[in-house]
Structures are given as C-alpha cells and as structure tokens.
Amino acid sequence: MFEYANVKKIPRGISEAESFGSSVHNCLKRWGELEMEIGRRALGVGQDQMVLFDKTSHEYNDDNPDPLHPTPNTLLEFWHQSFIINTYASRVEADFARERGERLMEQFYAWSHLRSSSFGGQGSGEVWKVIAVEKSFSIDVNGSVLKGRFDRVESDGDSIRVIDFKTSPPRSQDQVDADLQLSIYAMAIEEIYKQPCGELMFLFLSDEGVVERSTTRSENQLNDARKQIKTIEDNMDSKDFHPTPSAGVCRCCPYKGVCDVAAA
Ligand code: SF4
Fold this sequence. Notes:
single chain, 5 strands, alpha+beta, Lambda Exonuclease, Chain A, globular, 5-stranded mixed β-sheet, binds iron/sulfur cluster
C-alpha cells in the first residue's frame, strides 16, 4: 500500500469502508468537542451562573434542544451531518450505511453516557474528561519524524489515556497488546504531555456492539517498538515493500483493485 501510494504515486479513491470510518470519526469529533465545551462551562462558571445553562431556565424542546444537555438525538443529528454520502455505489447502499451508523451511534451514546463525567458520571462513576480530539502530533523517533493524530485523549487529573476509534471488527487482546500504532501513541503522549501514557484503548464500533480493548506500554515495550520502526525504515530505504496481505487490511485498501496479491 505504501509503495502504491508514495513510490508509484498511483492516484487513489476512497473505499466505502474508509468513507464510513471517516463519517464516524467526523461525528465523534463533534461529540468530543461538545463534551469538552460542557467541561469548560462547568469549570468556568459558578453554581449561580450554571443556572443559565440549566435546562429548566430555557424554552428548550425537541425542535430547539439544549446544546449543553445532549441526548441520543444530538448524536444522531451529528451523525447525519457528518455522513459522507457520495462514495457509495448506489442510494440503497448509502442508506444501508447511514442506518448502520445510526445503530452504532446509539450504542456509542449508551457507552458514553454510562462512563462520562460530562454527562453526570452515571454508571461507572469514572472521572475521565476529554482533553483533546483529533489532535495532530509530530514526534522524533530514531531521528525520523513520525506524524499521527489522536482520536480522543482523556485525563482523570493524574493519568492520561488515548482512545482510538475503529469501525472494523474487534481485534484480540494479544493483537492490541502488540499493536505498533498504540505504541507510537504512547511515545507521543510522553513527548507532548511530559508523562507516561496510563492507558491505550481501541474502541471498536461494529455490528458486534461497542467493544473496549485496553492496554499499556512499558519502557521495554516502547524500546522494542523503536526497533520495529527502525526495521520498517530500513525496508523503506532498501525499497523492500514485500506485501503482507490479510483480509482485514486488504478489505479497506484503496489499491485492492490493482494489487495482484490482495486477500479476498
Ligand atoms: S490489497 Fe492488501 S496486499 Fe495489496 S496493497 Fe493493499 S493492503 Fe497491500
């Protein structure tokens, strides 16, 4: 994929799976920004002033919902506004994807409502707050620049965790424990926030429901990841782009139509 995109520079379209994933990420970016705004308002105003944002002090109704008391409909509205429609082969497929997204967002709302202090901390009583969404980073690893973006960064005041959204089927715990993307996130958190990353999480949003897979990285594991990155860099320098097809990766690859070894 790297060779097609960056060496042969073959123009690429966007697959339906990528398009759906982008729609979900756009929607959850807006949701995370809303959570941050609610957190800022709660910190920035006193109890007396909070009444200004109290649902009972406004003429809010279904047609004019209170933006600071989001409901499942708020998230569904974000979803419809974020849905990228023009990548689907037909209207029927687009409608199918849009309705699938509605189900995923309903499941995400239930997950979020249970755990987020932004919405009253119901359920788990956790105190994690969103501190960044879709945050870009650029770090130095082995003298090379690695760029990436966190989907969502949370803090409980002491520790930081990163949540990465996936619309693919859940991976096993072993796969998540060995995932290089999460290791790079751990390095980036250390560099940006000047503290170790307390938790790394893939949040799988799929037809199986919301599945959390959490992991951590020790300093030894991060050193192993740096060696792995060095090996990849060496392969790139020697133009070794030996493909490693797998159904999970090739399914979303924009070059699967021109690749001789694409996995079915
Ligand atoms: S189809 Fe699979 S093997 Fe081929 S370039 Fe894409 S990811 Fe690599």
